[in-house]
Write a structure and sequence with these properties.
Elements: H1 8-24, H2 28-39, E1 43-45, E2 52-54, E3 58-59, H3 68-81, E4 87-90, H4 98-109, E5 115-121, H5 128-142, E6 149-152, H6 158-171, E7 177-181, H7 187-196, E8 201-205, H8 217-224, E9 227-231, H9 262-271, E10 278-279, H10 286-294, H11 303-315
Helix pairs in contact: 3-4, 4-5, 7-8
Length: about 325
């Protein structure tokens, strides 16, 4: 009697051979179309409007620069990002002169219609007039008549200014509105605001190294149909994930969902969560942008693969 041994690696190999053979049997135009589809950026909809955005955008906290030499690499990053139409560019008045730099470069490149521009507002101590002045300045700095997404930065004056954001949205000066936090201690307040107001978007801190938003913000967003954008998806400058894996080889099983670098593994992990709409990794370098954009193509880890990533991460030594 012949004994058959179940070998999942062999089974995957045979499946791959079968799929490759089937693909070769297709006409050339069909093979080209299949390859193009596999390389196309993943798009997800903002539930309230149905507008589809690429799942990898750009954070611009470090775009507050002054000289032509400093602006040159940023121009190349924006030029490349524009090839993935409607990508989110996230900025804020608090990021030094980032808004003005972005407005200048985007106008120079003639690419305003290629981006989904997001910025932020605050109303300290409930000062709505100060918030309105800030939004008017953002429109001038970004050199645009309409901002695609205006969010209350770190919930500062949110209850006071959200009615004004709704008025501006009704008037067409804002297309979407929302709130942001990068502070675990504000998650409960953010969840309450999501449930209390018709917000299109919440931006929140979440990464493989900090998953607490899953307990409060994500459930509220899913309940209300609020899009979720992730800030510091790679841990941010204060808690970068890369230090913990500096001398750790990328596990072979990362190839199962198309990750070829740690950045791609970290971002694909985030995007594998069903509550997440898009991630906003910050970069000023074209090579890093290319790496990040690759995370927004091809397969994403399913629930079981995400648990495997978490177990792998949790077993690593703490960063010294």
């Amino acid at each position: 009697m012949t004994t058959f041994v179940r070998d999942p690696r062999r089974r995957r190999l045979l499946q791959g051979i079968a799929l490759s053979t089937a693909a070769l049997a297709l006409p050339a135009w069909a093979r080209a179309a299949t390859a193009a589809a596999a390389d196309a950026p993943i798009l997800r909809a903002i539930p309230s409007s149905g507008e589809r955005i690429p799942v990898v955008g750009l954070g611009t906290n470090a775009y507050g620069v002054q000289t032509a030499g400093e602006k040159a690499p940023l121009r190349e990053v924006l030029r490349r990002l524009a090839e993935v139409g409607n990508s989110v560019i996230d900025t804020a008045p608090a990021y030094r002169n980032s808004e003005a730099v972005l407005g200048e470069l985007i106008e120079e490149l003639g690419l305003r219609d290629r981006f989904f521009l997001a910025t932020k507002v605050t109303a300290p101590d409930g000062d709505v007039a100060a918030g309105i002045a800030q939004m008017e300045a953002s429109l001038r700095n970004l050199r645009t008549d309409t901002i695609d997404l205006m969010m209350v930065h770190n919930l500062n004056g949110a209850e006071a200014i959200i009615p004004t954001l709704l008025e501006w949205k009704q008037a067409g000066r804002l297309r979407h509105i929302g709130i942001t936090t990068s502070n675990d201690g504000q998650h409960a307040e953010a969840a309450a605001l999501i449930r209390a107001h018709p917000l299109d978007v919440v931006q929140v801190n979440y990464s493989l190294g900090n998953r607490v938003a899953e307990d409060t913000v994500f459930p509220a967003a899913r309940e209300r149909g609020t899009a979720v954008l992730l800030n510091v998806p790679l841990g941010g400058r204060r808690g970068s994930l890369f230090g913990r894996v500096r001398d750790v080889p990328l596990p072979e099983w990362a190839a199962e969902f198309g990750a070829t670098s740690w950045a791609q593994l970290f971002l694909k992990y985030n995007l594998g969560h069903p509550a997440v709409t898009a991630v906003l990794p910050g970069t000023t370098r074209l090579a890093n942008l290319e790496d990040n954009l690759a995370a927004g193509r091809g397969p994403l880890p399913d629930a079981a693969q995400r648990r495997r990533i978490e177990a792998f991460w949790d077993a690593l030594p703490e960063q010294s």
